[in-house]
Each structure stands twice: as C-alpha cells, then as structure tokens.
Amino acid sequence: MPSQVTVMVNGSPVAVPAGATVAAALGSAGQPSRTSVTGEPRGPLCGMGICFECRVTINGTPHRRACQTFCEAGIDVRTEE
Amino acid sequence: MLEQFDVLVIGGGPAGMAAAARAAECGARVGIVDDNPTLGGQIWRGESGEAQEKQEAAVWRKAVLAAGVSTFCGTRVFHQSRPGVLIAEHDDDLHVLGYRTLILATGARERFLPFPGWTLPNVMGAGGLQAMVKSGLPIRGKRVVVAGTGPLLLAVAAYLRQHGAEIPILCEQAPLSSLFRFLVTLLRQPKKVGQALLLKKSVGGVRFATSSWPLTAQGKRMLESVTISRHGKSETIACDYLACGFHLVPNLELPLLLGCQIHGGYVQVDDLQQTTITGIYCAGEPTSIGGVESSLVEGQIAGLAAGGRREEAQKLFPAREKARRFAVTLDRTFRLRHELRNLASPETLVCRCEDVAYARLQKQASWRTAKLQTRCGMGPCQGRICGPVTQFLFKWNPDSVRPPIFPARVVHLAAALAGQSDTQTASTLGGS
Lengths: 81, 432
Hints:
Chain A is mainly beta. In chain A, 10% of the residues lie in helices and 35% in strands.
C-alpha cells in the first residue's frame, strides 16, 4: 500500500497519508468545507460524524461527511460554495 | 433482504464491542452496527497514543472477530420500521436489521458551548481535533489552545503534544478546589492514578490554567487567535487551532426513538442493563458518562444477559459499582459554571446548521417553539450540537425525537416508510 494518496480538492491535488479522511485532506489544504446559510466559511467541528459541518461533494455525490470518508486516490472533492 | 439477529448491537465502541463479543460467546447470532468506518468508537479510533490502551482495543477487536459477529461499519440506523426491525443506511445500500434482543451502545459526543467566533474554521472539539489528527490531519508545529472542561482535555493535550503540536495553554473551567477533590478520589483507584501520572508526564510543561475558559475566537476566514478569561483577567493568544469541548453528553436519539425511559439525562436501566423496554438493553455512556472501564463492564453485563448467562453477568456487578462511583465524581468535578451561560453575544450563532443567533432564541419559550419559529435544531445535525447548548443556556428539553434520526437518502426513507426492504421497489416510489 502506498504511504500517500493524492486527492483533488476543488481541482487542486492534495497529498495525504494513506488512511486519511477527506476532512484531514481539507485541513491539509487549508480549505473550509462549506459555506453556511448566511455565508460564513465553516470547517469540521466534531470530527465524528455528528455535526455535519464537514459535508462536501465527493465524486459528484453531495452531502458526504468528509470526516467519515477515507481518501481514495484521485477522488474529486468539492467544497460547498 | 431482512437480516435477522438474536442480538443486535448498535454502536461499535468499547461498550458495544464488549456486548457483542460476550453475547456471541453465548452462542447467539450477533450483529454490530456503527456509523464510523471502523470499530473502536471514539476512544479507540485509529492509532492510539498509549500502549496499554492500544492492547486493550486489540483484545476486544479480536474477541468480536473470533466470536463470529457480523460487522456493519459506516452504517447509520435512522428508523425503526416496526418493533424488532431497524433500518440503516450504508452509502448507497439499505440494511433492514431484525433482532430479538437489542443492545444500545450509542456512546457520547462532546458538549459545545457558543461564544463569539466559535463557528470559525479551526475551532473544533477537543476530541474532534484529536479524531482529525488520528485521521491524518498534520499537526506538527501547529499552535493549539486546548480549552473547555473534562478529563478529555488532558488526554487531548498529551496526544497533540506527542504529535508535535505546541500547546500554549490548557484552560479548564473547573476551579482548582474541584480538581483537587477529584484527585483525592482518584487515589482510591490505583489504575487511574497510573493513567493520570502518565498523562501528567506527557503534558508536563504545558501551562494548565484552572477557572479559565474561552471568551472569543478571532480570525478573518479562519481562526487566528483566542481570548481567554483566566481567573477573571482576559488574555489573547495567537494560535492555529482551538480544541474546545465541555465534557460529554450521551447520544440518546435512538433510545428516545425506541421509547426508552430517560432519567436525569441518561437511559434508565435495571441491574442487567435492560431499559424500560423488555428486550432492549443499554450500555456505556448513554447510561452515565463513566469512561472506557465503565463502558466495558456494562457492555459485558448487557451481552451476557442478552445471551442468557445472567449468573455470569451478576459477577460483574461489583466492578460496575466502582465504575459508577467514578462517573458520579466526573459529573461533580466538571459541572459547568454559570459564567459560561453568558459567553454568547446577541449575534453569536447557537444553531450552526440554520445560523440562528442567540438573540432570536432568547425570545422563545421552549425547544419546540424555537424549532417552529426560528428553525433552530432543524438542520442536518438535527439538534445534536445546539440541543445540549439550549439545554444548558435555557433549560429546554427536546420533547420528541422523530425519524429519520439521521439524514437519509429519499429512496431509503421511502423504503423504510413503506415497510419495504427492497430498494428496487422503493425507487419506483420516487426520489433518489
């Protein structure tokens, strides 16, 4: 198993350790995960799938919780604007 | 498509793993379901810092596997279609899980409290940040202020430090006098003293401030600094992350949905961990916040009772009694001080899903009217974050829990509501 995988976050490559979650990839890239209903940038809060702040679109499927999803090489992650 | 079990366990942390292993060892056909991608719960998530802890996790993981338990990870229970049948979702799959006996081991989550700036990216739970680092977030060289209350803060500070973070300060809201009494109680439990000494060694040199809490977090689009109150004086500290949690609250959504009686904020259970509903047991943090030892012993009792070995379960009662006393001590030591009710400003958001500010909620009479009038608690987290907040700030109690208890795909909802187990049929009902 390779020690690192590369995923695409909003079109840019981000390398993370194998076994990392998408939330960790967003954090490495310094990217918020979503924009709130009043326009605030948000990032992960609970880290355990409860708060839904880290929800992103992964390979076209919206509302995926980044903290509960492992990175796979080449997946396309889009933060909510 | 109905998968039938003698014993179904909801929650794959220490309590759930212990329950599943013991029930299966009694010869029952056992299934275990957890929302997280792997078993272990929050405390045994990913790699673990402490060698002893890691070993204990491995022992239970092996026990679950050896006993032939069917494991459903990354799977969320969102509905009970009829008594004895739970509906769960795993990505694109629907699971219809039947049981004769159910064991609820749904664990706990961190309690958050709102203060100006708490919605900025990089303000996270203390356990939340630890989970993120365990899941691959680089932390080496980052400055992390740790704040809030509870024994978790020390463990998190130690863990982050081991992984190269700089901890400029750890703020514990409890007064020194409470913590001192807590330490005296710990002296009666040699194992816990050992753990505490290990922790102290690993956080040695970190500034540990009692009677201290965060006032505001600042930053443009991300956290840049935190202002804390320390013995009544304010102090601003530049940092990359704020790891902030105010002890734990039990996950009661599923017990409530099933109709289990709640007493004093926890699921009411009898000697054998059975809830007020015959055939439904509960173990671990939902019955009292007592930590991993308490969860393991309660899980084993529930598993043995569900498997029909009551005498063996009874042998564990003394160990549980000891663990329960510790839970009471925890509750007393880390009780929230009243000053924390005044941290939010009128503009501070309380409900992060629907962006509902404190001032709008102040005018409401109850959780129900707040939901109806402001949409507080109506977003995807369904009040999991703001519910405990409003309970502390306004003494509101949620009056009911409605399915789906987790957001679910429309196609799965349709299947669940139709009482059908066939996804193909459900998709003809509409939605995706």
